[in-house]
Amino acid sequence: MGATTAGAAEITVLSTPTMQGVLTDLAPVFTRATGHTLGLTLEGVPALKRRIEAGETFDVALLLPAAIDDLSKSGKIAVGSRSDIARTAAGVAVSAGAKKPPVGTSEDLKRTLLAAKTISYSRDSASGSYFLHLLDRLGIETEVKPKLLAVTGRSPVEAVARGEAELTVITVPNIVDVESVALAGLIPEELQNYTTLSIGVSANAKERKAAEQLIAFLRSPAAAAAIRSKGLEPIVP
């Protein structure tokens, strides 16, 4: 994986915020190994997909598998370049100073969501869509919707950290290591939504070889510990 400094490149990476902690920790390791640096743009999957469809330039995109596949079909991502990197579960985030509410069963979760005064979520994210579907599955959409705080341009976890919302439902990596926020627990198995994160190379990548090196690195044993530390499970090739 070695690269000379003369051949160093900046790889333009468009990524879901779910991978922020992993990429932040691994970027300097990758740079030391290859000389390449990462130029990160973090945003929800639907928003990034729209930007790519509109012609935004990039080298690699870290999105959901369906988004990568759709963009491959439309010629935006190179066919056959998709690699699955990691998988994670959804959980409930609360203030670090608050008593953790019970969420271990469907009934526990239902009562906790009904009791919460304010719940933050992002309209333009996969986690936000899952949460709204979860309310429907629990049969409490009508009761909970008036208490929802929709956030834009930031994570709903930030609203919990600032005391603007009592809790949020989101993938675990978005909760881990966030100051003033704690994981109350995982969504019960029968309601759980496991999210796979996949990476694909732009069909018009300026730094294709460096992008391929990044993908190989993210799928290597050297990256596995960092991936696990952020609440994800690496998908081994």
Task: Give an overview of the whole structure.
The protein has 237 residues and is of the alpha/beta class. It folds into two domains: 5-87 and 196-234, Periplasmic binding protein-like II (D-Maltodextrin-Binding Protein, domain 2, 3-Layer(aba) Sandwich), CATH 3.40.190.10; 90-191, Periplasmic binding protein-like II (D-Maltodextrin-Binding Protein, domain 2, 3-Layer(aba) Sandwich). It is built from nine helices and eleven strands. The strands form two sheets. Strands 2-1-3-10-4-11 form a six-stranded mixed β-sheet, sandwiched between helices. A five-stranded mixed β-sheet has the order 7-6-8-5-9. β1 (10-15), α1 (20-34) and β2 (37-42) form a beta-alpha-beta unit. α1 (20-34) runs antiparallel to α9 (221-229). The chain starts with 9 loop residues before the first strand and ends with a strand.
In a few lines, what is going on in this structure?
The protein has helices at 20-34, 45-53, 65-73, 106-115, 126-138, 141-144, 156-161, 208-218, 221-229, and strands spanning 10-15, 37-42, 60-63, 83-88, 90-95, 119-122, 148-151, 167-171, 181-186, 195-201, 233-234. With 237 residues, the protein is α/β, with parallel strands linked by helices.
Layout: helices, strands, pairs:
Layout: E1 10-15, H1 20-34, E2 37-42, H2 45-53, E3 60-63, H3 65-73, E4 83-88, E5 90-95, H4 106-115, E6 119-122, H5 126-138, H6 141-144, E7 148-151, H7 156-161, E8 167-171, E9 181-186, E10 195-201, H8 208-218, H9 221-229, E11 233-234
Parallel strand pairs: 1-2, 1-3, 6-7, 6-8
Antiparallel strand pairs: 3-10, 4-10, 4-11, 5-8, 5-9
Helix pairs in contact: 1-9
